[in-house]
Amino acid sequence: MSALLATSEALTLAGINRLDRVRFVAALGGVFEHSPWVATQVWAERPFASIDQLHRAMIGVVRSTSREVRIDFLRMHPELAGKEAQAGTMTDHSTAEQAGLNALTRDELLTLRRLNAEYAAKHGFPFIIAVLKNTRTQIFAALRTRIQRDTDIELDAAIEQISIITRLRLGRLLAH
């Protein structure tokens, strides 16, 4: 949590609704990977009646951007078990979400890296999946399937996975 929000109380939706823009963005700017502009754009829509309404507004901002902006947005996300994970440079959110992937066998890790590279070469952005909602087997199966898809279909699928990931993040961040 930001120093701007240092408090003994957890963040609440009511509290978020009362924040000025700077504090709102400080609190929610990390929900979408390296994209505080999403929080900036929804601030004026306060107050939000629910976490779901807040999330719909945030993902709506992403979905309403141009194809090029959405692709650039996806490129801000780390590869699964990729270079950022090895270097320890992922965001706290991504580190926690990918924690289960640190138990991959050497062969699984090599396969994942090969498939990630194939996916990125075809689609122009990293493979994105809500790791916390999938088993290792499901992740590998989805990656193999999604490599074969048309890039426009995959762009929509990746944004849908971001929607799942960010809804989970908001749920963890905000007390009910």
Q: What is the number of helices?
A: 10
pLDDT < 50 stretches:
1-8
CATH class of one domain: Mainly Alpha
Structural class, from helix and strand content? mainly alpha
Assembly classification? single chain
**DSSP helix fraction:** 55-70%
CATH superfamily of one domain: Oxo-4-hydroxy-4-carboxy-5-ureidoimidazoline decarboxylase
| Rg measurement, Å | 17 Å
CATH architecture field of one domain: Orthogonal Bundle
Task: Please write out the topology.
Elements (H helix, E strand, L loop, with lengths): L12 H6 L2 H8 L7 H7 L8 H13 L3 H9 L7 H5 L4 H6 L8 H18 L12 H12 L3 H23 L3
Helix pairs in contact: 2-3, 3-4, 4-10, 8-9
Description:
The structure is a single chain. By secondary structure, this protein is mostly helical. The protein has a domain at 78-162: Orthogonal Bundle (UraD-like), CATH 1.10.3330.10. 61% of the residues lie in helices and 0% in strands. It has helices at 13-18, 21-28, 36-42, 51-63, 67-75, 83-87, 92-97, 106-123, 136-147, 151-173. Helix 2 packs across helix 3, helix 4 runs antiparallel to helix 10 (151-173) and helix 8 packs parallel to helix 9. The model is unreliable at 1-8 (pLDDT under 50).
Keywords:
mainly alpha; 176 residues; UraD-like; globular
Summarize the structure.
With 176 residues, the chain is an all-alpha fold. Helices cover 61% and strands 0% of the residues.
